[in-house]
């Protein structure tokens, strides 16, 4: 066999090995990226659940003066009525739940 063909054969083998090594490297990079993506999704889900839990118990502060939704009378609420969020309108006697 001529030396040129031996050199070409060796070069081809080196190129094939290099190509396989690159494919393996790309595979491991893909696996790392996939794991990072999964971790990001888990972190986002935890944040969304925290937001949901924090907003579920949040109740806006009730102002001292409101309008009755039934008769439109202006009502001044005391501290107990504002905290319980449940009272009757003195004008129309209907229950108001805030």
Explain what this protein looks like in three dimensions.
This protein has 98 residues and is of the alpha+beta class. The chain folds into 2 domains: 1-58; 65-97, no CATH class. 61% of the residues lie in helices and 12% in strands. It contains 2 helices and 4 strands. The chain has helices spanning 3-56, 79-84, and strands at 65-67, 74-76, 86-88, 95-97. The strands form 2 sheets. Strands 1-2 form a two-stranded antiparallel sheet. Strands 3-4 form a two-stranded antiparallel ribbon. The longest helix is centred in the N-terminal third of the chain and has 54 residues, at 3-56. The radius of gyration is 36 Å and the shape is rod-shaped.
Secondary-structure element sequence?
HEEHEE
The major β-sheet equals: 2 strands, antiparallel
Radius of gyration: 36 Å
Q: Give the count of helical stretches.
A: 2
Oligomeric assembly: single chain
Count of the separate structural domains? 2
Share of residues in helices: 55-70%
Alpha carbon gap, first and last residue: 95 Å
What structural class should be given to the helix and strand makeup? alpha+beta
Summed over residues and divided by their number, the pLDDT gives a mean of 90
The number of E-state strands comes to: 4
The shape is rod-shaped
């Amino acid at each position: 066999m001529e030396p040129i063909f031996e050199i070409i054969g060796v070069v081809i083998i080196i190129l094939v090995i290099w190509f396989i090594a690159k494919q393996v490297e790309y595979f491991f990079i893909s696996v790392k990226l996939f794991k990072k993506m999964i971790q990001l999704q888990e972190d986002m889900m935890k944040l969304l659940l925290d937001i949901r839990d924090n907003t579920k118990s949040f109740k806006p502060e009730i102002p001292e003066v409101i309008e009755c939704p039934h008769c439109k009378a202006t009502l001044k609420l005391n501290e107990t009525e504002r905290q319980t969020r449940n009272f009757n309108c003195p004008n129309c006697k209907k229950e108001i739940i805030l």
